[in-house]
């Protein structure tokens, strides 16, 4: 009987403990289960700024002189790779990685001062830009003050702080998200840039490495200050739960990989639909043809996509339901792997190519057509079946705005495509192109049509 009573007592204690723990965990989340990105993201054209390599000096002030060029190109949202001081201890390369942060509340003197950054944000806002910071929450550099002041804020093994296991990042120390004080300070550091510098959002590095409940808590606290946009780096789609509240967008990595294969004639265009992120809430993917990791470690945009394919790829990125992102140098199809931890200024005259007008046209079309807005509040997105694996077509609708987008994603002609089920002849071409030739008009394709290699159309039906 004594043993039964002990068991019952233990069981009751366990139930009470779990219930109380559940109440404690749930308390911060007495809010809607999903969030909505700020209104401005609906027409956002995102540009990733590699500040160190953008200009000869690599400074905030010199970059500021290029805002007019970016605005003319249609860019309206700036994502700055980390601007914080970089750790010297265990540094990789001469200048180190942006992602080895020694102080979350300061600016890398290589780039300038906090006053310089505040002036840049103010100028950008005055010009109609929004500004996002790259945030590194999974780890810090080895000479971050937290290392000595709060060693319990870090993951330890055999009594020693360690780098993230299995990642090959010896220049950083892994943070311990079991520590409530560290979590609180991390959020306070994020809030600092919103309250003091009025930044509009964060791109969060290696978001799956950080517990999902931290991102929820951070988003709750940040939204109390300002309605922000949160983009997670989640290359494999392994942290989908983050989109339930913490984040508005993640990387459309599988689509990017499919486009690579399509451009090299390794896959047919019908495979794109298999990897398009599908959500039933207010989130949306970020589409890209390049980014800092891809460029530095894998391939340049010029290696991935030729002159023949790039116009259609850019156009597809701007018309799929999501937010398009341009990386520094993409506008000239930069054909050099930009060094990651050394000074390696982009040579803006290197390629002789210029896609700024194309990007500007696509940005304008996106802003003028609610059917192309980035959120999921439109009336629909529908894949159109034209009975050809190389021809990718879809319809986007928002209220009275309806667009049909058709792409021959192939280096070969696609003959005898019956368009009668989607084109009546009353529509109007908004934008069209064939390989490296594109313009804001074009003759409407009707009836049984033969598409030239990489030919594409944006067509308004109403």
What is the annotated CATH architecture of the largest domain? Alpha-Beta Barrel
Question: What general outline do the C-alpha atoms trace?
Answer: globular
Number of strands: 20
What's the domain count? 2
Relative strand content: 15-25%
Low-confidence stretches: 1-32
CATH topology term of the largest domain: TIM Barrel
- Rounded mean pLDDT is 90
- For this structure, what is the CATH class of the largest domain? Alpha Beta
Q: How many helices?
A: 13
The helix content, as a percent range, equals: 25-40%
Radius of gyration equals: 24 Å
Q: What is the terminal separation in angstroms?
A: 80 Å
Give the full name of the CATH homologous superfamily of the largest domain. Answer: Glycosidases
Question: How does this structure look, described?
Answer:
The protein has 462 residues and is α/β, with parallel strands linked by helices. It folds into 2 domains: 34-377, Glycosidases (TIM Barrel, Alpha-Beta Barrel); 382-460, Sandwich (Immunoglobulin-like). It is 29% helix and 19% strand. The protein is built from 13 helices and 20 strands. The strands form 5 sheets. It has an 8-stranded parallel beta sheet with strand order 10-9-8-3-2-1-12-11. Strands 13-14-15-20-17-18 form a 6-stranded antiparallel beta sheet, covered by helices on one side. A hairpin with a 2-residue loop joins strand 14 (391-398) and strand 15 (401-408). Helix 7 runs parallel beside helix 8 and helix 12 runs parallel beside helix 13 (356-368). Mean pLDDT is 90; it is low at 1-32.
